[in-house]
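Example A, followed by Example B.
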Amino acid sequence: MKRLVNHYSPYRESNKPPYSVLSATLNGCKITAYESGKVMFQGADHHKEASKWGTSSKTNSKSAKTPTKKCSRFYKSRSHRI
């Protein structure tokens, strides 16, 4: 998690969601890292940015049967320490 936070620090935003340690935007992709160790990538080319950091569990806002373009990816950090 420390490496991820350091990597996105230059793109950090001043306002961050509750329980988050980082909120950043890079090339239209919003990155939010949470105290729990999860990281969410949203927006344009989220899959490219997220693939730099490992495996994911994909979630959609609608059921799996309904195709959708809006999608988020959560990544679980190996270390919970920041």
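Example B, a separate protein, is given below in the same form.
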Amino acid sequence: MARDQPWGVNGGEPGKRARKVIERADGTTEIVGNKVDDVEVREGDQLHSII
């Protein structure tokens, strides 16, 4: 199991890491890191959680 994968529960296989992407109103995209609290979000931006 890779160090950065979430562990399985009740004997399950390791999980996959989630990703977060901001789709800006102007059409550009930005990958958001985990555990960040300083991401500027503007009107029209959309946050996508990919699991």
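On Example B: The chain is about 0% helix and 25% strand.
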